Each structure stands twice: as structure tokens, then as C-alpha cells.
Amino acid sequence: MNEFTAEDGFPGSRVASIAERKTPKGREIWMALENGRLFQVREDAPDGEKKFIAQSLPHGALDAQLHTLFVDSENNLWLGTTSGLVLWREDTPRLFTQDDGLPDNIINQVIADGYGRLWVSSRRGIFHVSIKQLLAAADAPGSPVNATLFGRDDNLEGISGMVGIQPMAWKHRDGNLWFVTYRGVVGFDAVRPPETPKPLPVYIDGIHIDGARVPVPGKGSIHIGPGVGQLELHFAALDFSNPGRVRVRRMLEGFDIDWNDATGELHCAYPNLQPGRYVFRVEAINGDGGASRAETSLVIIVAAAWWQTVWFRAILAFACVALVSWIALKVSNRLLKQRLRRLEHEHALERERTRIARDLHDELGGRVTKIGYIADSLLREDEPTPVKELAQNLVTQSHYLVEDLHGVVWTVNPQNDSWQQLAAYIVRYAQRHLAGTPILCTADGAHTIPDLPITPEARHNILSIAKEVLNNILKHSQAARATITMSVENERFRLVIADDGRGFDPNAPENNEGNGLYNMRTRMAEIGGRVDITSNPGNGSTITIDSPLKCRPPQYGGGANPQPKNPDATQSRHC
């Protein structure tokens, strides 16, 4: 005799059951305590190590009491608990409960026969279940377990096995099984193999459509008209010997995703079925492990209303396509007409601008030239000095007028509506404007500007700013050199005009009293661009004009000729 104490790891609680299991490493002794603790006893534990190794029960049985342990012929360890039947596996123990198909969760005794069945004594009675089916369900969670519970027809209804003293279940050498119950000892003849039950007759014995009963067709299918609110089907699986052992399940193919447990049901209802073909199937499973199965089925065809038919949907789809096409055609024609009117208006404006430019050149230009010729003739006459001075002044002004007139004609002419023409004209204007002055003017980058169209507004505003800057250089800068640089990057036109003159402070009050800087910012804001002014006294000035190649004037609310109230704020919106 050897007494185990707390020093060996034994907690000292009352033992409920002991079982022995063989493993490749040798024998294992398993011990279940009534307080729910499970221990593995190691015979070959080295000195200094505990012989009792505590094991954890699976989730769902952590607070359960242990009633019994059993090892079957395949060396599977089974635990009977107050929370269900546990198949012990070192990695993932599996708990079987009523949700898996067992008749009860309180397991008192477990034993096996010689035909692969596990016999279980529970609170509700004694039942048996296939070990093979339990192992399959352990590997595939969700698989049903079919247990056979002995009840009224076996004169064993309400028989509950006892717990406390071991053993309470015993297998005799002749193969018979014995259980100790609260009503006495119950024996089962488990020597002969289990009989395969015959398939049960399954019937669909009633059909109700919106509460009205209709005949059940013997064969074939049933046709239901459109607009059905509820379809009710009655069915039965006949077993007069032991109805409690029969499992029934049903499925309406085309409506249900999977089988539904219908054990104990007599009918089912399906509301608002859509048009289509359905198959109602009823299956009865009889015997341990589903040894016998029987099924019946009924084809149900729900007719479609006229608005649910394929031809109606096809006509509706064709009508929708036709309507959308008609609307798209109308909208396209309207947009096309608007575009044609806009193009005609633009062409009319171009023709008018061409006419104005031609008239200015031919008529007004000829008259100004004639005035200059007359003034030049006066200079050649032998006139008094005051008259010659007036004539000289008249010749000078006529030259200025001709030059300005050429600029107006160039601006009005639509043939010059391109960025390339604008860049070339700015260079020519700068060279003419600064010719004969101490200021040396150089230009670079005009040849890189693309020949893309430009709006008259953008061309006019950029040219006006360039003229204003060149005029200020000539009047105020006292510079010796002026440079003009042009470039295009990221679809934006960039014009930089710099000089090496005396410079000025752009933020000084005296430089903001006039309209020059204000007008520059306003002009660029109107075409979505900006102008940057960099200058310091004594360090020259740099004026940078930045404008998108596709200029679209911003929308200002109200007025025939709206102007931004805050040019700096407007500039920031279009930068």
C-alpha cells in the first residue's frame, strides 16, 4: 500500500472515478475528483517531480462536477460530467451536449459494448450512441449526433442512473451491460449486433395556401398561382414503436440554405415565395447513427404575375433604355445647338474684330500717316523757329500715335490669339520701347512658348501689365539693364521682367496710393493668375506674371462689370 499526500501533488479531495489508458509511452492512470478536477497520474515520475499532473477541462465544463471516467477499446478517454460528455484529447478536448444531439447534459455512467456503441446513463435515462459518430463530430464541429434513448416503449421512461459509488455500470463477461438506477438494476442484452431498422414511411399529407386546403398530388408537382401570401405544408414520419427515436429534418430547396431540424414538428410555413421552382424535402432518420433514412419530396412551382415575367422585364428594360437614349439624344442635341450658337457668336466676334482691325489700319492709320507727312513738310519749309518747334512736336506725337495704333490693331486682330504670338509681341514691344535709351534689353525663352490659343481677356491683361512694367522701368528705375524671361511649366505661362535699377519698397504707403500695382493684381485675378512683385531699394525689381494656359475669368456676383473687392484675397484664390 502507498498513500499519496499533498507532497505528491494529490489535493486530498474525494475521488469520483479512476481509469487506466495505454499509450505508446506506457500506461496512464487518470483520476477524476468530485470537485471537478482531473489529474493524470505518472508512474515513472522522477524523484522531485509531482506524480499528479492537473489537466484543464474544455470551455463549457470548467465548473462541472466529474461523475465517471471510461476508456474504450480504441483507447479513447470519456468523461461524464454535469455539463455533458467529454472526449479527452490533449490538444483540444471536445464537449458533447444536448446541442449536439445528446438527450441530456448530466452524465452519470459511461460504458461500451462490443459493437462500437457507447452506453450512457444520464438524468433523463439510458441511451446509446455510436462512438464512430462521436469521433466524426469531434473532427467536424456542427455534425449531428444521433442517440437512442430508451423510454416508454422499453418500460424505462424516467430511469436515472445512480452516482457516488463505483462502479455503477458493468459489462459482464458474456457481453451484457448492467446499470444501477434509482429504481433498481437494469440489464441490456448487448451480445447480439444491433438490428438495422427499416426505413420509416414519410408523408407530405397536407397543403394550405393562404389558409385554404388544396389536394396533395400523388406524384409530380404542384402549381401555385401568383401573389401567394403563405404556403403551409404538413408532414409526418410514422414510427409507432418508438417515435422518440426518430429524427426529422426538412428543407425547401430554393428558399432554405441548409436542412432544418423538424423533430416533433407537424407542419411548417413559408411566406411570400417569389416566382420560381422549389423542392420541399422531408427526411426521417431512425436508429443509432442514422442507420436508416427515408425521404419524400414535392416539387412546388410558383407562377409569376404578369409584371414578374421575363417578357415584361425585357419590355421594361427596353423601354428604359429607349427612354434614356431619347433623353440623352435630346440633351445632346440641345448642347450641340448651344455650342453651335456659341461658335457662331464667336465667329461673328472674330469677323467684327477683323473688320475693326482692317478699318483702323486702312482708314485711321492712313489719316495719321498723312498728318505726319504734313508736319514733316512744314519742317522743310523756311518757317520761323516757333512754327518749326510746333511742327517737330506734331511729328513726334504722330509717330507715337502710329505706334499706339499698331498696338491696338495687333490686339484687336483675332489672328494673334495665341500664346506664341503674345510672347513674340512682348519681346518686339520691349525692344522698340527701350530702343534709343540707356537701358539694354535682353529677352530669353520666347521661342519655347507653345502655339496654343489664348483668350482675348488673358492676352489683353498680360500685355497691359507688361507694358506698364516696361514703362515704369523706363520712367523710374534708372536701370542699365532689363531682362525678360518666358517659360511654360505644368500648363502655366510664366513671364519674369527684371531690372538692375534703384528698386523700391512695394509695401510703402506712397507706392500704394496710385493704381498701378492695384491694377496689375486685379488684371491677373480676372484671368485666374497672379503677379508677384519683388523689390528692395537699391537692389532692382523683379515682376513675375504667372497665368494658366487655359484662362477662364472667375465669376464675381452682380454688376455689368464686376470687380473683386479685395484683389489680394482674389489673387490667393487663383494662385
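the 2nd protein, sequnce then structure:
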Amino acid sequence: MRIRSRLLLLLIAFAAVPTVATGLLAWRGAERALAASVDEQHRRTALAEAEHAATHVLSLATELEAALLHQDPTTLGPAAAQEFLTRVFLRRDRITQVGLFDAQAHLLASVFVDDPEPFARQEPQFRRHDTVTAAEVEDFQRRAAELLSRVPAGRAYTISAPYLTAVRHRPAVVVAARESGSHGGGLAAELGLEELSQRLTTGGESHERVFLLDDRGRLLLDGRAEHTPLQEDFSARLPEARGARQPGQGHYEEDGQTWLAAFSPVPELGWVAVVARPREAALAPLQALARSTFEVLGLTLLGVLVLSPLLARALARPIARLAEGARELARGNLGHRISLKRRDELGDLAHAFNDMGQALETAHRELLGFNEQLAAQVEERTRELKQTQAQLSRSQRLAAMGDLAAGMAHEMNNPLAAILGNVQLMLMDLPEEDPSRRMLNTVHNQAQRIATIVRELQLLSERQQSGRSPVDLHRVLNRVLEARGPELTQAGVRVDRHFLSGEVKVLADTQALGDVFSRLLVNALNALRDRPERTLTLATHVVDAQLVKVEMRDTGRGIPREHLERIFNPFFTTKQQWTGKGLSLAICHRVIEDHGGSISLQSDEGVGTTVTLVLPTAPTQGSLV
């Protein structure tokens, strides 16, 4: 029997298809209608939760702003400022700490509860506030100072990203308001988010889950106790909600179960409120309809199954061989061929299948070669792009910091000169035995320290573009090593030099380039202190006809991996005590960049650090400096 006759029998058997299609369409329509109703309900709930979260946080920002409008706390005395902060602190139960800062983001006064009993005797309302530890107080003051220093222009307040407190791991945010008057101080408060968590716990219906995500898609608050805030990540499971600016819907998988979710952004905070319910629970009313539909489908299919054995013998075997051939191709066996000697349409299909396998095998071989070549090119371009982006980003940050440093240095020089001059005049007028000389000497020394930092800031902001000439790189390195020779000998440091033979000339300012090497050498000496092996290796290499590379490698303590991204940032230092430093590497980066070169740093903690400088070579003409 030909395929045409067999298809006729098959069409007769599938006379029940309209019944099946009608049942499925009815079920699908009901499913869509119910899903739309559930989505709308979830969307309204998510919008309400988002508005409540925004009100909970932004109302505190409004209160801080209003407090600054009615009173300038930076003009108050210590006792009055403390009383002002206490009034602000007692307005809300969920404020754990509040602090007053001056225009330079320095803490002037603060209020918090570290021992509830003494506070309760002073003011019973303190019982409603959570206690904090010393570490949490220090963490808050640091976060508040950073937040106040970057309040956006034209804004009276700003709000930090959510975080867990340092000791008790409670979810919180810092709300800071900037005073717009001449003093420019500010207020900052740490707001606990437990109240929002309690609302999420009681706000959802049965089987419903309500939670908040931060701007990176991490779980911020959840009504379910088994989930730890800021640890569960929804950025991959629910990517539509991450950083959402408009309400929307989505779904995600959890514990083998599909959850339907609606989300809405929290105004001004960058958070997202999410309402989710298991798909099975949300679409439960469809189960009865599904059972009825499938009963009808079962009866229809039963009639089809009665006729299927008649067709199985004629069609099942060749179709099974075709299916097995398709599976072999899917498993990657592109050399598999089907041997089917038939003169009907199935035979033609087998021949077409074999032709397709031959074409796929040929194309696969060509594609593998192309993929290998493309992967190598992509890897190389990606590495170059990452290096270029990192260098550009660092240069932009240093340029911005340099502009800021120039303004700061200009504004600080005049008052600093007046301070130094007046202190020196007072020291000249006081006799040696005067007890005030010791205090004035301390003031004089600290003012000179500030002057040193100002000079460093000026170096960071200056861009030296002229006065360059061909310089022998080896001579500059040797001069720096000779100048630091006593320090190297005293520290027990062995210096290995691996210089290229002859002169290596670069177009540079001798003093500026020598200052860079001197700063790097000082950093290496600090890293080599108390190390069992103290070796400093300097090497020069020619990259090509236009570039030369200098490597300075030490066997010091090394730098932690998490600090490497920030090592060239101004005022960042890995020293245990900050002594007015933290600008050397930033200045080195600025000088090398001004010379048209680049500087990079690699370090393994406990092994050592390697600093690499790449500089353009000087033209062949020109005199040696």
C-alpha cells in the first residue's frame, strides 16, 4: 500500500482532532484569563509595596532636610548640638544612629544607644531604639562621611545602597541630608529596615511571597525567615526585575517549582518590590477544567489507538530507522547513513537524509576550523580591550582627582602660609624656657606636614608637557639607586640590575622621571621590611623600536588581591597607619601618563610585587641630559 492510502486511514483516525483542539483552546483561553487576573493582582500588590518602601525611607530624608531648614546645627554649641540630634533621633523608632557632620564630612556629634539602661533612665523613649556596637558605630560614621561628600548637585539629600550592619547583620541604609547654607554641614542617620521585613511577612496572602531586591538583583528583605538578606541572588533567576524602571511580570524556578512574579521599582531608591506565587497555586482553578478536558481527550485518543496497530507494521519500522538516524546525527555521529530500500516517499526521505548528513559532515569540519581561529582572535581582542578600558578608566579618575587636588591646594596654600608665618613669629618672640613653645612646635610641625601634603596634591594636579629631552634611562635609575644606597644597605636589601647593554634613551623630564623611580623605590623598601628575603630586581627591556619597558620587582609582603583595583587611587594606601601618604602611586601614574607611557602593577600576597613602566623611546637625534 502506498503512503497516500495509509495517510487516508490516518486522517480518518484523526477525525477526533477538532474535539481535541476545541478542548485545548478552551483550556488555554481560561488559563490566559486567569493568568492575566493573577498578574494584575500581583502588579497592584508590588506597586503598593514599592510605594510603602519608598515612603518608609524617603520620609526620613524629608525629616532630616526639614530639620536642617529650621535649624543650622553646625552653629550650635556641643550641648545644643547634642540636644538637637537627640530630638531627631527620637522621632523614629527605627533610627539606630544619627550624626552631625561639618562641611568636610568630619563628625561633630552623634547619638546612638550602646547600653539601654542608662539611656532609658535619661529618656524612656530610648527603650524603643535598637542598641549598636562600637564596630557598627564606626561603620556608620564611615558610610555617612562618604555619602555626605558626594551628595549630588541640586539635591538636598541622598540615600546609600542597602547593607548589613557590621556585627548583628541587620539590614539598613544611611540617609544623609546636606545643609545648603554657608556652613555646608549635614545630618546622617542609619535607618533599620526590619519594619519593612515585618510588613512583608504579614502582607502576603496564602502561598504568596513578597520581597524586595536591591539594584543588583540581590535579596534585600524577605518575609520568609529562612532567607538571609543580601545573600540570595535573583539577578539570573529573575533578570527582568534587576534594575527595573517600570512595573512588569516574569517567572523564576525555585526548588523545582515555577513561580509567577510581578515587580515594581521603588521610587528614588533603585530597589524593586516583587510579589510571587507558585504557578500551581495561582492556576489551581484550572485543574478541574483540565481534568474534564483530558477525559474527553482520553476517549478520543482511545479510538485512535484502536486503529494504530494497523499502521504500525507498515510505518513504524522505517520511521524508527529514520528517527535512529536523526538521533545519531544529534549525538555528533555525522558519518551515519541510513540503508532503506524502498521506492516510495520514505525511500526518498532516506536518500535526502543521507545527503543532508554528508553536507553536515563537510560543514562541521569547516566550522571547527573557523571557530578555533575566531576564538583565538576574540580572546586576543578581549584582552587588549580590557587593558585599554582599565587604563582609560584609571586615567579619567586621576584627571578628575587632579582637578580637585589643584583647587584644594590653591585654597589651602594661603591660610597655611599665614599659619606657618604666625607660628614662626611667635616662636621667635618666646624664650626657650617658655612652656608654650612645645605646643607651638607641635602646631608648626603639623602645619608643615599639611604643607607637604599640599605639595603632593600640586604634583598630582600638574601636567608637565615641556622641558623634555632625550634621557639615558639607565643613568636615571643608577642615580636613584645611588641616592638611596645608604637606606638599601641599612635595610639589608640586595639589588640586582639586569639592564640592557649600552644606553636606552627616552624622551622625558629627568627630575620628574627620577622622582617616579624614587617613589617606587621607597614603596619597595617599605614592603621589604622584616622580610626573610630582601631582594630588589631592576630590569630594562626593549618592547619594539618605539617602546622600552622597566620592571621593578621586590620580594616584599605583596598586596592583597582586593586592593589591586584601587592601588593607583589618590589617598589609598595599604600601610597600617596613614601618615599623609597615599599619593605616591597616583603621582607616578600621572607623570608616566604625561610622558605618553603606561604603568601597571602585579602582586602576590606573601610573594612580592612587580611594577612595570612602558615609556616611548627618544628620537635618534638630540643631546643626552
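DSSP finds 14 helices and 18 strands in the chain. The radius of gyration is 37 Å.
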